[in-house]
Amino acid sequence: MEDLSTTAGPRSIICPACEAGHLQTLGRDSRRCDECGSLISGPVLKTLEDILTLPDVIGAHACECGHPEMRRLPDGVYFCPSCGSEVLPPSTTPTTWKSPDHSEAYWCGWLDGRYREIPSFHNNHRLSSWDEAHDRLDYYRGHRAGREARLAKLQLPAAS
Q1: What residues make up the domain containing 17?
Q2: Of 49, 92, 98, 133, which has fewest CB within 10 angstroms of its CB?
């Protein structure tokens, strides 16, 4: 059997089932793990091959937007200078930033207002997922508060 590394460059695909073996060429569109014997083909194999062709990460923590390295801030949060994303380090303990004074609809709206630019509530599917009128109102109130927090962080004046 031919090692995938001879056709795909110096790296071979690790088996997604056992995470110990390497996938060996079995046929034209299938690979078998040399450790556990799992057969990988179809969309899963295509995805793994696509991942294999991705360039190596340059920095310590690449961003999902494609920027090669997020900056590590003094508090341990990673910040992307390209898109503005912030990622907590994996060692961070869960936070209790959601006050019990507000409903789940409010916090969903707050997150959308803080991190998503929604041009109109007319086509907002997240708002329409709340059936009760008081939940929709809480979502809207949360969205407004989240948007104000986003604009305050950007130091832009909030529009009324």
Answers
A1: 5-52
A2: 133
